[in-house]
Design brief:
about 280 residues; alpha/beta; Rossmann fold; 4-stranded antiparallel sheet; 10 helices; globular; binds adenosine-5'-triphosphate; nucleotide-binding
Amino acid sequence: MERKVQDDRQVVLSVRDLTVGFGDKIVLDKLNLDIYRGEILGFVGASGTGKSVLMRTVLRLLPHRSGTIEILGANYETASDEERIALDTRLGVLFQHGALFSALTVKENIQLPMREYLDLPQSLMDELAYVKLEMVGLPPDAADKYPSELSGGMIKRAALARALALDPDLVFLDEPTSGLDPIGAADFDALIAKLRDTLGLTVYMVTHDLDSLFSVCDRIAVLGEKRVLVEGTLQDMFDFDDPWVQSYFRGKRARSVVTNENQPPAKAGPTDAGKT
Ligand SMILES: Nc1ncnc2c1ncn2[C@@H]1O[C@H](COP(=O)(O)OP(=O)(O)OP(=O)(O)O)[C@@H](O)[C@H]1O
């Protein structure tokens, strides 16, 4: 059962006291994080703070030393094999750089999760692949192309179509707009927001893209000092007294993307957005 918090939001991902390390090096130390149904959570932090490690740990691609991870009300560690498989089908992942299989066409890439988890006739899988392509704004003729024949933006969309193959509840996006030009990135952000609105998706998005954070994320979590330093709205970021957070959200780079709607209150702050 998914836990409900006081204000009735449903927690779909709950991480408690999570510790992850490699050898002597602790990367995440007793980290806590909640994600609520239907939100787009933007996850930021300086380079090397452990954003990818956290995402990979949540997806069980990396082991953790202690702590608990509950996804959609289930705990992988105590779940039966059947429950784990059922849970896997409710998660979609878009890895950095798309990570499509280069020897497979777009259609075959989208059908991979269907082949792994469902027993469907080829004709139905073909139909579904075209539906997913349309969802992400790709033309039908992209289906038979190979990744090498696609632009960077099309690869991201094809990878998103694959992440949506099993109609997931929760999708993990690792830097989905990296490598896209600003217009392509803004279009991709708009697509993610549309899919959240139409499909009711919950989105966990690791990003360095301030435009994405300012335009489509409902909440933001900042990773630092091996834990979530602060989570909340953009306003909470503006108000949080930490040099990196202040530099990131009030620095020069941030000021170039703020709009009247999300303007931070005037305050003498650092002048540079800092390295991400
Ligand atoms: N398999 C691994 N073995 C050893 N150390 C690792 C491994 N994976 C990650 N690390 C270390 O964990 C730390 C966090 O890495 P991670 O890739 O999660 O950072 P990040 O916040 O995603 O960085 P970036 O924004 O640059 O992608 C780094 O110091 C990295 O070297």
